[in-house]
Amino acid sequence: MFAEYTASELTSIFAMQGFAGLILFSVFVLMALGLAIIFGQMGVINMAHGEFMILGAYITYLTSNVFSEYVPTLFSGYFFLAMLLAFLATFLLGALVEWAMIRHLYKRPLDTLLATWGLSLILQQLYRTVFGAREVGVTLPDWLMGSYPLTEMIEIPINGIFVMVLTLIISLGVYFMMFRSRWGCQVRAVVQNREMASAVGINTEKVDRITFALGCGIAGIAGSAFTMVGSTGPTSGQLYIVDTFLVVVFGGAQSLLGTIASAFTISQAQSTMEFFLSGSMAKVLTLLVVVGILMLRPQGLFALKIRH
Amino acid sequence: MLSNNLSSKFRKAALAFTASIFLTPYISQANPVNSTGLAVTDDKVTVGILHSVTGTMAISETGSVQAEKLAIEQINAMGGVLGRKIEFIQEDGASDWPTFAEKSKKLLVNDKVAAVFGCWTSASRKAVLPVFEQYNGMLYYPTFYEGLEQSPNVIYTGQEATQQILEGIDWAKSTKGAKTFYLLGSDYIWPRTSNKIARKHIDKLGLKVVGEEYYPLGHTQFNSVINKIKLKKPDVVFISVVGGSNVAFYKQLKAAGINMTKEKPLFLTISVTEDEILGIGGENIEGIYASMKYFQSLPNDNNKGFVEAFKAKWGKDIVIGDVTQAAYLGPWLWKAAVEKAGSFDIDKVRAASPGIELTTAPEGYVRVHENHHLWSKTRIGVAMTDGQYKVVYESSDLIEPDPFPEGYQ
């Protein structure tokens, strides 16, 4: 396979392939973090996760339009504001959904699957009504779409770096919130034993609402970032949902660290195999590996040690 | 209680249904214009429009619906068909193939429509085909597709695969000196058949395929394949990726530092129309080539009038892609066949169809072949930043449709 290439060509291709794997890893983590909080910490199967992401993407689209219309001079920086707005919008929608729907279903996790599936269909049709059935093109600032030539062969995509840095920041943020703050302590207490947490004076309803909204907010940021690498249309959210659940379940539902480990395993496996096999084949093999490991370890890669 | 309720509802529905059958206007069997009881009266004729306006495919099918409605409106303004105004019943296939079959049966059996303009994906066409053949309806199908089909009940107004592909590859060889090709597509029947045809033709020309790849529908990460393309350095990357994946693919190409305007490699697609560029963004796809029969920018008078009328009806920012134009031909081809036959009867319309020609088509002149596809020209366009294609080449003659190419199956 490699006989016809020079050593330097191969080195640079493998370097770029490794980088492609890292980008995929960041994309997976960004996709899955919000769901890991909602599904892992709260046991809610949120089938509308992809639609929350796309709401973030649409907010980005609207922001870019407003900027190019009214403040074109500041256009190159609109993306940061767009992400913030995407977070706020999805956070608020998440809080609303939790209040209207999810809070009545905490005891019935399977029913959340159906309810959120319905919600995803409603949101899709809403996007179609508001933004039209066609995909919208999100114009990105030039500096985001460029690439940095490292050597003759190696080109580093700026937006790949951007997604990586963003993933790192958000992961650290989630880590500090969950494990280094008073509020995170309450969340973990509620997850481990709702009644007891309530008995020691934690407002479980408020914790639930904010946790759910936060998960949706992170989905919104992810969706905003993915306008750089993917499409924005009413049904684009469906493209992400399977991979997202795959990452969360494989990592072990209740462990955020597991989500990151699982994203790393799946992304490296997939990008390595994609290089040696065809795209569809790589996907099939990745799924087979995941299913195989889950048969041996049904709880996923990492599991919390809780007495039930 | 519940079962009682249900059965009474069912009885009511059944009654209403039988009533509707008996209450349809009785049409004399002796009338040669309509001897089979289609929904035709002395001053109007009813046709069906069957596309997805909800679900995944709504993205693509919206343009087809708009084009068909525009054509019907224009025909009515000219006095209709055989002196009858066209009315349409629109049904939503909802991006779901069984739904398409069910709705087509409703249009043919309950509504007795004289023709149906509709379907977009091959899957939806395959789902309605048995219904059209059983109840003898006529479907005008707009999408460019893989061929390998010929039904007496379908007129294919888009190109079949060989019309798009062979011309594109010949052009790449003769004007760009291409010798090596990398084939990339989404993983389902149309790209796979298209690439089979492409590969065979590339072999026949004595050129080389250096890679062939398929990614699942909806795939959003193309960095690995982009690296492979960089390593293999093909002269041409021949692309049949569809849907949202397109947006991801071209954005990632651009971000990986590949300048498409340099044509190293040259990107040649058969699946990106102006519709798709809306989502991709012209600045991310500038410099790729597409091989199709129609571009919105085609410089002829027919097309100028068509684009103006389309924008007047559907908004000034609208774009028109290959399939939208092919959908627009449907009602006009049907009108011509009905008038040649002097009747709405499906069998007579079918017999009259081969040889029907349109000189007013936006794409120029087209003619219906005995195999129910169209003789049409193929153009190569290059994508510009404004989201339009600039036509750089046009086949000198009409290309004969060949839905069953020798040795390609």
Automatic annotation (TrEMBL), chain A:
InterPro entries given in the database record: ABC_transp_permease, ABC_UrtB_bac, BCAA_transport_permease
Pfam families noted in UniProt: BPD_transp_2 (PF02653)
Species the sequence originates in: Ketobacter alkanivorans
Keywords: Amino-acid transport, Cell membrane, Membrane, Transmembrane, Transmembrane helix, Transport
GO terms assigned for molecular function: transmembrane transporter activity
Family note: Belongs to the binding-protein-dependent transport system permease family. LivHM subfamily.
Protein name in the entry: Urea ABC transporter permease subunit UrtB
Domain of life of the organism encoding this protein: Bacteria
Compartments where found: Cell inner membrane
Signal peptide: none
From TrEMBL, chain B:
Organism: Ketobacter alkanivorans
Domain of life: Bacteria
Pfam families associated with the record: Peripla_BP_5
Any Gene Ontology biological process: amino acid transport
The keyword Signal appears for this protein: yes
First and last residue of the signal peptide: 1-30
Assigned keywords, A-Z: Signal
Identification of the protein by name: Urea ABC transporter substrate-binding protein
